[in-house]
Specification:
Number of domains: 2
Strand content: 5-15%
Structural class: alpha/beta
CATH architecture of the largest domain: Orthogonal Bundle
CATH topology of the largest domain: serine acetyltransferase, domain 1
Radius of gyration: 26 Å
CATH class of the largest domain: Mainly Alpha
Helix content: 40-55%
């Protein structure tokens, strides 16, 4: 008798599950309708959109070329170096050409633009990107040396290349900036936001940053789109180079205006400092102390600190 009851329960449960499953087509129909609703976002198109996963792999490919021998699984020696770089460069060229072409074609379709020969442009821009890599290697070498010279905790240049989040964020920024300057849509921000997620360091690919740039620790650093940073600049964690708050109606007008500060050569900015505004210039060789809030320019060779707070000591008894 008990086994019959169990069978009835199982039968009832199966019928309920079946009836629930029959409701899926209705839900799918509602999902389809929502994709066609104005104000909702969907990429339903005969042309592909760039792949975030592919763009991340392109970043890692480029890093293997910039730092050969560090991030690949095979040993590299002087004999096989040309073969290794040839393979990596060819694969990068092909993969990047595809993603650039998809990004350009996506914009053409979405914004009803005239045909710009996206496949050909993808290959041309990809080749220009590859041609920029030797110069990027030289600049990144100055960034590595700046980290080593600026951080007594650094055991070696290898340690910095392998493990410093600041160098990873700077490497991604410098790669993304090349594509940004070449007017490639979507890809530069995908790259920079990947680095942001990995390191907590947010550098817009449109920023202009000189050589020997060092971000110490790094978590919480924000560098806005129109920021300009000179050479031999050092930032600590939590530094913001941002824009002043704007009324909503002014956003479009100022979208291409300079909204973020200029930091001249050999400036040090300590943790938690916030520097805002497109007209704000921090002069060369200046030092900005921790937690400073700055919205006006600072002359060269100036130190800016917050007045020492009063400390209160209480007897724990």
């Amino acid at each position: 008798m008990e086994s019959l009851l169990h069978k009835d329960e199982c039968k009832n449960e199966a019928q309920i599950i079946d009836s629930l499953g029959q409701r899926i087509p209705q839900v799918v129909g509602e999902l389809v309708a929502s994709c066609q609703r104005e104000g909702c976002f969907a990429h339903v198109s005969p042309v592909p959109i760039p792949s975030r996963e592919a763009v991340v792999q392109i970043l890692l490919q480029a890093r293997r070329i910039l730092f050969p021998g560090y991030f690949n699984q095979t040993r590299i020696d002087p004999v096989n170096l040309p073969y290794y770089l040839g393979q990596e460069a060819t694969a990068l060229y092909q993969d990047l050409s595809t993603q650039i072409a998809w990004a350009i074609r996506h914009d053409c379709y979405r914004y009803d633009q005239a045909c710009t020969l996206c496949e050909e442009r993808g290959q041309e821009i990809s080749l220009q990107f590859l041609a920029a890599l030797p110069g990027l290697r030289t600049v990144l070498a100055t960034d590595v040396r700046a980290a080593y010279e600026g951080d007594p905790a650094a055991g070696s240049h290898d340690e910095i290349i392998f493990s410093y989040p600041g160098l990873f964020a700077i490497t991604v920024y410098r790669l993304a900036h090349v594509l940004y300057e070449l007017k490639v849509p979507l890809l530069p921000r995908i790259m920079s936001e990947y680095a942001h997620g990995q390191t907590g360091i947010d550098i817009h690919p449109g920023a202009e940053i000189g050589e020997s740039f060092f971000i110490d620790h790094g978590t919480g650093v924000v560098i806005g789109q129109t920021a300009v940073i000179g050479s031999r600049v050092r930032l600590y964690q939590g530094v913001t180079l941002g824009a002043l708050s704007l009324p909503r109606q002014a956003t479009e007008v100022l979208r291409t205006a300079k909204r973020h500060p200029t930091i001249e050569d050999e400036v040090t900015i300590y943790s938690g400092a916030t520097i805002l505004g497109g007209d704000t210039v921090v002069g060369a060789r200046s030092t900005i102390g921790g937690n400073v809030w700055l919205t006006e320019s600072v002359p060269p060779d100036t130190k800016v600190f917050i007045k020492k707070p009063e400390l209160i000591y209480l007897d724990r008894k």
